[in-house]
Amino acid sequence: MRERYREHVRAAVLETAHDLIAERGWERVRMGEIAEAVGVSRALLYKEFGDKPGLGEAVVLREAARFIEGIENVLAHHGSDASSGLAASVGFVLEEAENSPLLRAVLISNRDSPPPATGILPLLTTSAQLLELASGSLARWLTSHVAGLRADEVSDAAEALVRLTVSHLALPTRSRADTARKITEVGLRCLGLPITPEQGIAT
Q1: What angle do the packed helices 101-108 and 2-24 form, to 10 degrees?
Q2: DSSP string spanning 36-100?
Q3: CATH class, 1-50 region
Q4: Cα(137)–Cα(156) distance, rounded to whole angstroms?
Q5: Which CATH architecture is the domain 59-199 placed in?
Q6: For a surface tag, which of 34, 42, 169, 185 has the fewest beta carbons within 10 Å of its beta carbon?
Q7: pTM value?
Q8: What are the pLDDT digits (tens) for 31-88?
Q9: So where are the chain's domains?
Q10: Which residue positions in the chain have pLDDT lower than 70?
Q11: In sequence order, which residues have a C-beta less than 8 Å from that of residue 149 and are 6 or more positions away?
């Protein structure tokens, strides 16, 4: 019972913190207001997360885990159809980043500049980890579902596609649908796979 209560409180704190960060940025969020919103003491909050940076890290890692799980769920619904799988996964990334300012900040964060908007330091390390995990998920799906692909080529292509998608988030030049189609086309060409007209990808 105690462990279930702890899990419930932790989930409520992370959800509340996420919403407040998205609303006004990390620097303006206070531990006390989070504790009050959830209905727990500040002491319990500090006991669970250590300090504010500890809470920030937990929020970022939770968002990252949701993101990777979402990519894997999307890919799982496309069998061996590389074209639809790539298009769906790119579309998922673009949509999720559009709907979640925190996730977008994580994805485009890098070590050469301050974390955008939120100011959470864990973005700096989580960003690289997240890109690697996303590339790995895509590469594993392609290798296990599409016959005739070399593992090294798949790994390189998956990383390139993920980074290309993230580049669009940092500096969008097309609509979400057009971006998904173009990135999918690039991926199919890199892998030597046919471009299916039904996906709406121009040849």
Answers
A1: 80
A2: HHHT--HHHHHHHHSSHHHHHHHHHHHHHHHHHHHHHHHHHTSTT-HHHHHHHHHHHHHHHHHH-
A3: mainly alpha
A4: 13
A5: Orthogonal Bundle (1.10)
A6: 42
A7: 0.81
A8: 999 999 999 999 999 999 999 988 988 998 898 899 999 999 999 998 888 999 999 9
A9: 1-50, 59-199
A10: 110-124, 196-203
A11: 142, 143, 191
